[in-house]
Amino acid sequence: MAVRFINNYFIEVYDPTIEDNYKKQVTVDEETIILDILDTAGQEQFSAMRDHYMRTGHGFILCYSVVQRTSFDEIGIFRNQIMKVKDTDKVPMVLCGTKCDLEKNREISKSEGEARANLWGATFYETSAKTCLNIEDTFFGVVRAIRKQHELYNSPKKPKLKHHSCNLL
To answer: In the chain, is it the N or the C terminus that has fewer CB atoms within a 10 Å radius of its CB?
Structure first.
């Protein structure tokens, strides 16, 4: 998903890594920003590093595969850890169901994903890196969530946030 967003390229065979970093300058709602993306691939064995990037991230895209029930079940663990590390009940977040082009193998319905996002107060998208469906919308959605939270907790006299850190889990 991150590679599709950054390079507009679909990787057929994905090899999860510890983490990959990407930067991209984008314009969202007529404001140009630098988006700093950390793709963690949700690697459980690197939990010591996870607290650090959760603490420093501005917003989060929580991804699950619509063709893998376990990924949907486990995404709540990541959300709970983010809330604990951030010590807050409101974090800019997008819930993202990936691989929606694989409709015949679907295990999680769109309505189930939407219900979870509503419960968490998160924006929801279903995406396909293969067809490029909702990839840009998802990243722009987390930028909008970050901006909204930033505006709620900062006075209008403070400068706008021009650099957004987004963690992709």
So the answer is: N
